[in-house]
Amino acid sequence: MKVIAIVSTAGGTGRTTLSAALAVLLARRGRQTVALDLDPQNMLGAHLGIDGFAPQGIAHALLDDTHAWHAHTWRNAEGVLFVPYGAVSLAQSARCDARLAAEPRWLATALAQLDLPRDGVVLIDTARYPSQQAEQAVGCADLVLCVTPPEPAACATLVVRLAALRSGGAQLRIVVNRLNPARDMQRDVLAMLGAALGDGVPLVQRVHLDGALPESFARGTWLFDDAPHSQASHDLHGVANWLDTWLADAPRKPTHRDGERA
Question: Which SUPFAM superfamilies does the annotation name (predicted)?
Answer without folding.
Answer: P-loop containing nucleoside triphosphate hydrolases
